[in-house]
Amino acid sequence: QVRIVESGGDSVQSGESLRLSCTVSVDFFIVAVMGWYRQAPGGSQRELVGNVTRDGISNYADVARDRFTMSRDNAKNTLSLEMHHLKPEDTGLYFCNVRGYNPQLNYWGSGTLVTVSA
């Protein structure tokens, strides 16, 4: 069984900061990669924000580089996303994604909403 819980989404003003958290409960595979994706309002595609391997290697999308920072705790199976200097275009539903070493093991949370007003 896999349970993914995201939290921290909120409505903020442009330039402010937010911290999102993802907690994963899983009992049948080791989480290899944890990441954040987002989906803009009315959009159908989820875009990568960033991900972190079990070894601690972080990968950031261009939209996140220099403004967002991820922190992963393997023991607790948690992943946080610190977002600074938020812009209206950062508005969207942010999803936590977890993958095992087997590519078929790929799971999503239900998302947490971030709204940034100008």
Q: What is this structure's SSE topology?
A:
Blueprint: E1 2-7, E2 11-13, E3 18-26, E4 33-39, E5 47-53, E6 58-60, E7 68-73, E8 78-83, E9 92-99, E10 106-108, E11 112-117
Parallel strand pairs: 2-11
Antiparallel strand pairs: 1-3, 3-8, 4-5, 4-9, 5-6, 7-8, 9-10, 9-11
Q: What can you tell me about this protein's structure?
A:
Strands 2, 4, 5, 6, 9, 10 and 11 form a seven-stranded mixed β-sheet that branches. A four-stranded antiparallel β-sheet has the order 1-3-8-7, with no helix packed on it. The chain is globular and about 45 Å long. The termini are far apart. Strand 4 (33-39) and strand 5 (47-53) form a beta hairpin. The relative contact order is 0.32. By secondary structure, the chain is an all-beta fold. The protein contains no helices and eleven strands.
Explain briefly what this protein structure is.
The chain has 118 residues and is an all-beta fold.
Helix content: under 10%
The rounded Rg comes to 14 Å
Mean pLDDT: 96
Q: Write down the secondary-structure element order.
A: EEEEEEEEEEE
Helix tally equals 0
Biggest sheet architecture: 7 strands, mixed
Q: Which spans of ≥5 residues are poorly predicted at pLDDT below 50?
A: none
Q: Structural class, judged by helices and strands?
A: mainly beta
**Separation, N- and C-terminal Cα atoms:** 41 Å
Strand tally is: 11
General shape: globular
Beta-strand proportion:
over 45%
